[in-house]
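[Automated response] Your request has been received and processed.

Submitted sequence:
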Amino acid sequence: MSAAATPALSLEAISRCLEGIVPATIATCSADGVPNASVLSHVQYVDGQHVALSRQFFNKTTRNIEENPQAVVFVWDPVSCVRYRLRLRFIRSETAGPVFASMASRIDAIASHTGMSGVFRLLSADVYRVELIEPMTAALAPPDPDSDLPPEVAEPAPAQPPAARSEMWALQRISGVVNRAADLDELLRGVLQSLAADFGFANSMVLLPHESGQRLFAVASHGYGECGVGAEVSVGDGIIGTVARDRRPLRLSSVECALRYGRAARERWQAEGQTAVGREIPLPGLPDARSQMAIPLLLHDRLVGVLALESRTQHTFEAWHEAFLGVVAAQVATAIAQRSERDETESPAPAHPGASPPAAAGRRHTFLLYKNDDCVFVDGEYLIRNIPGLILWKVLSSFAREGRTDFTNRELRLDPSLGLPDIKDNLESRLILLRRRLEQKCPDVRLVPRGRGRFGLELDTAIELQERSSA
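Generated structure:
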């Protein structure tokens, strides 16, 4: 076949096949006619005429391509079950650049989750020109009676985004939430609720960087109950940690399939007596998630946070979702920075009583601070640690000594004992996390916003404070 042959189908028309939901296979042949077939980790769309194949363990495939730069790849449509044969010609191998980086991030996310970081990795992104796309099996759906083509060659309609008007309305609603939010807590919760209402994304969270720069913690979540807020992820671990490290979006349409592939590679590596691998890392979120997507929240070149979504169904998140949420993420990142700057200026103190309402008769909570690691427990149960724990202890101690119930963000920021870093959004995010943890573990004690840069302590209980040097 001529290299200039016109493809019968377009890559855009079979975009579902390139999501990795059903594993692809590649067939090559050596110069002396010996064939070889291998399973592919990923076939990635590059443009209308090219795809990239991930090279990880393809020793025989690589040798064959060097001798005979032609390949056949079989991919499956996960919805219609149509199988397609792609006739390819090798163009080049890339070990850097946007195509390689995008593919490497996906593989790194799976490798970190299965304990194969540094072992299960991308060697190169091999770019091929697509010379022909051929359907090999008919779709399960009945043929279109208006089509002039037989069912085995009728081009399936690709998945479409909603009407442009609906998409714009959704963006308008989310923008309204961002603009109207009185504080960071209302902003983040409103955005997640809007994504659930407009797109049905029932499970989502926003994670912000820890002051160490090595971890992220969930400060807002939707659909996880009490296990969402406060969850932590190390940078580089799983899809969230990989997105935080690489600062580019990542979308997995079949998490289950990707993990099976990673675990199979791990088992083969161990069976061959290779170097020891790490343990599989449990990550926050749904234990049975089948689709995941994470978008970095970036302000210029600074990572403000990560927006993470997941679903129990395959192929929930499509390419247009990624593009749409990229716009949302940019708005959220800017809004976080703007609110942090604004909260440095205090509003006038509102009129309210200086003391909390009387505690309910006989009700008492005991708070215990372990000074060696800044962990706070309430009634013997872990509550919070690090900077949020120190903030809580400062507030409760001020109330116990002086009866104070009014506090400002500024006084917290200027208190050297709290060890707050220079990043301004750090304080507000810690206050949100502290409020959520109190709501979950000790609702009788509340931190309530009282105007810009101010908050108050409200108690429906008596409190007792204890300190210990260590556990």
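Summary generated for your ticket: Residues 407 and 433 are 17 Å apart (CA to CA). Residues 1-7, 149-160, 351-356 have pLDDT under 50 and may be disordered.
If you did not submit this request, please reply to this message.
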